[in-house]
Amino acid sequence: MNRLKELFDQKKNNILSIYFTAGYPEIGATLKIAEALEKAGADFLEIGFPYSDPLADGPVIQNSSQVAIENGMTLKILFQQLKDLRSRVSIPILLMGYANPMIQYGVANFCKAAAEVGVDGVIVPDLPLSEYEELYKDDFIKNGLSNIFLVTPQTSEERIRKIDSLSTGFIYLLSSSATTGKDLNVSDAIGDYYQRVKDMNLNNPLIIGFGISDKQSFDRANKYAAGAIVGTAFVKTLSDSTNYLAHIPSFIKKIKG
Amino acid sequence: MKIMDYRVNEKGYYGDFGGAYIPEMLYPNIEELRNTYLDIIAQPEFQVELQNLLKDYVGRPSPLFLAKRLSAKYGANIFLKREDLNHTGAHKINNTVGQIILAEKLGKKRIIAETGAGQHGVATATVCALKGLECVIYMGEVDIKRQAPNVARMKMMGATVIPATSGSKTLKDATNEAMRDWINNPVDTHYIIGSVVGPHPYPDMVSLFQSVISEETKKQLIEQTGSDQPDYVLACVGGGSNAMGMFYHFLEDEKVRLIAAEAAGLGVNSGHSAATSVLGKEGVLHGSRTLLMQTEDGQVVEPYSISAGLDYPGIGPQHAHLHKSKRVEYVSITDDEAMQACMLLSKLEGIIPAIETGHALAQLEKMELKKDDVVVICLSGRGDKDLDTFMKYFNL
């Protein structure tokens, strides 16, 4: 049973997803953070596997990736850490990262390892739709993994339909064309774009990400989508604290209200 | 015999390499370029403007110079394709002139670029001044310190130079920052990539603009030797744009041996090298599938070369294909070999080459040349920018 599908079947609104980078702020933090986030009320998680050249990320997540690499985090170690995942965490888990580490691991091996530890899906921002369809789709499907695609305000309707047809799980709606962690002006244009995508009545639920950092932006996203993803704001919380686990409940409360 | 296909296919690949591995945020920009670049470049008014600028602004055609004393030393007929005589001192401007006209036709108001040694940054700032377009150059913090005169040149021509402070603070990180800028400014900005790297159609577009090097060379060879078929063509490779331009019109002529010189730094296996064809594995960097230096876990490794222009952890996807298909021979040249070659050319011909170019020149030492052999070397840039390094290295 795909945990993502189960979640979206049961919950149609106010879904909160949190992103964090594996191996940050310390190598052994990955599962502890995941457990604490579930306990605090996050609905699903994105665990980032670090890359040295993260093009789509702003300084905060970039820095967390660099620290994680310095801490010794690799995909091999991440999969070892995730062996205990399903005895400790029950909410859906996605892995998020860039194409190169996945390709070096071997995409077929990566998908198999992810499925074995109980990962539900993958987000790879720089893996193109066409390459996914041609080269890797079978590996994802065979292992029951959802591949999550991004949509921006500039994505054409035709391409959104295509993305919808290839998606299993949800569609990641970017609040603007931006790298992660940008302060965004909440304008009417964004609302128009959310509404436009919402009115397309896609097969997959929409989750809004980028620029979600507080209750106000979370609530706004929920007017148009099933939920939202918080990344940079959460990673910042981890970096600001020495006792990072203790701050997780209040962070989630602040977003959900 | 079947001639191998060395050109880009309709999907943007050269054999196993190339493609456009970009986040969705860049898709509309890349798609716009992909759909329009060939048509725009083929337009008569584009070609008229390009040819006029290449002639009257860049100073083309660049001479093909028979270097007699160098030829005597190595016992062959060695010709230098003088890209160092171009405006701004290197081949880089062939590409920026082409892309700035393209950007204008696309209605872009703002230009961004990455630069390592600063040559591409200067060439971009130059054409932006020429056209009155806003220009933002990303340059690694480390390179800004190493290449102060080029930073000053860019500023004089009105460009804003933004230090890349992430990662290793060099060319690779400047490229990341430029791509991030483009993600955040998708509508009004054109990104002038300086080498034959990046997502399709950049490698093809940049090699098209650089192909003027081999186009002229063939004509000049006929005039000077009676044949457009040299025995050897040599060029240095970082990302690989001067080499692609130098090889372009010789690719299908399999009798012409093509040799690309990479930077071995302190030695290929010293841990301080940029010899991507030896040390690299297939992977994805800056939007294309190519050969790149990386760890087992797929983290990009920081390269090293005494020449900032060859200090890049990957090579263009077409080079990766030319390497794999063995059409081009890739050789490794150390810092010391390149520096000695620079000194030799200065002494023998009164031409101080860029250290990058020294890597191609150094290969002459390793070749077994015959008296009648015709060798063409792309003299990709002049050494003015490297004086500081020469002074330190040779105690001048």
From TrEMBL, chain A:
Keywords: Amino-acid biosynthesis, Aromatic amino acid biosynthesis, Lyase, Tryptophan biosynthesis
Lyase found in the keyword field: yes
Catalytic site: E46, D57
Catalytic activity as recorded in UniProt: (1S,2R)-1-C-(indol-3-yl)glycerol 3-phosphate + L-serine = D-glyceraldehyde 3-phosphate + L-tryptophan + H2O
EC identifiers of the protein: 4.2.1.20
InterPro entries assigned to the protein according to its UniProt record, in alphabetical order: Aldolase_TIM, RibuloseP-bd_barrel, Trp_synthase_alpha_AS, Trp_synthase_suA
Major enzyme class: lyase
SUPFAM superfamilies: Ribulose-phoshate binding barrel
Subunit architecture: Tetramer of two alpha and two beta chains.
Function summary: The alpha subunit is responsible for the aldol cleavage of indoleglycerol phosphate to indole and glyceraldehyde 3-phosphate.
Protein name in UniProt: Tryptophan synthase alpha chain
UniProt source species: Pedobacter cryophilus
